[in-house]
Automatic annotation (TrEMBL):
Protein's name according to its UniProt entry: Redox protein
PANTHER family from the UniProt entry: PROTEIN YHFA
Coiled-coil region: none
NCBIfam families xrefs: PRK10738.1
Source organism of this protein record: Halopseudomonas pertucinogena
Family annotation (Gene3D superfamilies): 2.20.25.10, 3.30.300.20
Length: 140
């Protein structure tokens, strides 16, 4: 896996993934930015959410669950002093579907957290306290 970062100006950077996709990262005005893109640490949090969400959807589909939507809400706390690393992250899954089995949703969340989500496992091994929970919404 590769990535390339190019400085644009001020606190703005373009990040290009090895697959050729680009994101804009920028800082707040007080840091020389124009607030035109996500912050680098926000991209880490979004990456964790994307990784975990992919796992949960994939596991539920393999379990033949009629999952219709998954929304993942992440809340993170950072250290007060430099380096302002994440200290705690809570991942909340809102799983919607038809007659979803709670045991399978619970197991999908656990498997993501403990076995499959590289981002979550990497951050957890780095000392970040990561917690997970879920809610199920039944749709017709």
């Amino acid at each position: 896996m590769k990535a390339q970062i190019k400085w644009v100006d001020g606190a703005m950077f373009l990040g290009e993934s090895g697959s050729g996709h680009t994101i804009v990262m920028d800082g707040p005005e007080e840091a020389g930015g124009r607030n035109m893109g996500v912050r680098p640490m926000e991209t880490v949090l979004i990456g964790l959410g994307g990784c975990a969400s992919y796992d949960v959807v994939s596991i539920l589909k393999k379990g033949r669950q009629d999952v219709r939507d998954v929304r993942t809400v992440l809340e993170a706390e950072r250290a007060d002093s430099e380096p302002k690393v994440f200290t705690r992250i809570h991942v909340h899954f809102v799983v919607s579907g038809k007659q979803l089995k709670e045991a399978q949703v619970k197991r999908a969340v656990e498997l993501s957290a403990e076995k499959y989500c590289s981002a979550s496992i990497m951050l957890g091994r780095g000392g970040v306290e990561i917690t997970h929970d879920y809610e199920i919404i039944d749709v017709d």
